[in-house]
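pasting Cytochrome P450 monooxygenase-like protein for the record, 503 residues
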Amino acid sequence: MLWFLPVLVQRAVAVICLLSLYPFFLAIRNIFFHPLSKYPGPWLRATFFWPELWTTLTGNSVPTHKALHDQYGHVVRIAPDALSYNDPQAWRDIHGFPEKGKPQMRKDRTGFGDSPDDENILVANDNDHARIRKLLSHAMSDAALRKQEPIVAAHQENLLEKFYARIEGPEKGITDLTHWCTFTAFDIIGDIGLGSSFGAVDAGGYHSWIANLFASIKFLGILRVAETYKWVGRLMHCAMETFPAMQKSRDLHIKLTKDKTLGRMKTVTEREDFMTHVMKYPSNDPRSMNEKETVQTFAFLIVAATETVSTAACGAMYLTLSHPHVHQRLRQEIRDAFPTKESIRYSTIATLPYLNAVIEESLRRYTPAPASFPRRTTVEGNVICGEYVPPNMQVAVHQWSTYLSESNFADPLTFDPDRWLEPTPEKYKNDKKHALQPFGLGPRGCIGKNIFYLEVRSLLVRLFWHFDIELCEESKNWMDHKAFLMWEKPQLLVKLSKRQEGV
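structre below
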């Protein structure tokens, strides 16, 4: 009995007892009485948010989610209010066009560092998103990109010159493709997007803008923790005030983005770029984008275009070089198709069947965005894979788990471009090819698909046409690395040599 203790002490003890019982009652509620109680998953994840947050912070969420799907099936409860899917049907149910008169599922932007004042293609409501997307879709149409092909080719030829110099120089052809593919993609999007290159290839190093952005990717996991546990957010706010360098880094990105974008908006030029289409209408026209939307949208496009292209190109190079029979067959197709370097044209590049199969299989085996981009169910709830999901629940297709699931692809861990060729080999006839959606689908699917294929196809063709390439021993296990929203890519070291005639 505690009757003999002072009243304040008794109350303190009572509070401590109640607090100690809180996790127990929370577990009972979330496991047995929560709206998602019927869905399978570990009880610890059903009870608390921190297991999911921890795997995100440590860069281990991608393999962890796959292991959960392997254990529990096509849908897993990964957090108290969150479901992860690896069923192809979930793509259409979550990301596809909704039934007439019904709203789209809104993007769950938890942990992406968004501000309530943000205005861009990512956070725009359905009407504003459609308006912004319409302008950008013209910029990234096949017709518009055909005009950009010479610019893309010029930047890739500039890269080849640097590689030839490395063959003759002290490097003896040893080259880090991770860095150089990133430099090239960054220069291209700067040029075709905003009218001028960033000069990363010529400098041979990261522009301060992109270096700052990639360094901040890990920080997104901390933001997710801060938004889930408010006391962490308050500590972060104090840290930002105590250590101004943290805020300065973010401000630098905003300033560089704004200066580059506004500089292009004020420039009169006859050469078409993405901004030409965005500025199609005067600022007072309701179809136009305002200054804030333009700056923030281009800041996102530059990062997305650089990262997806460089990651996909590096993944395709690594996987091809790791499989000698694939390497030999792809190189032969490319060199047979183009007798001279001057004959390399995208109209022909796009038709090479084995090249396209290699890229598709690379996107499956090493997709640039391996995790998921979650949505929130609508106020009425939604039916996903035949099961009703209550309102305001986080739902997502986990790409890595989907692409490496035996229920979707035969022998999923094997890299075999043949699965994408026609006629389909007997072994792969039951593959669910529609499960591969690296660009998403529906009204908010990735708008940059055409420019992605233009850059990646062209880069692979030029590299394999000009050089004999060998994977260095240090990069034999290159794909063994972590993911923080994007892959934390290590060096991809290869040895380049001038192609042998007749090979």
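The first helix runs from residue 7 to 33.
The chain has 20 helices and twelve strands.
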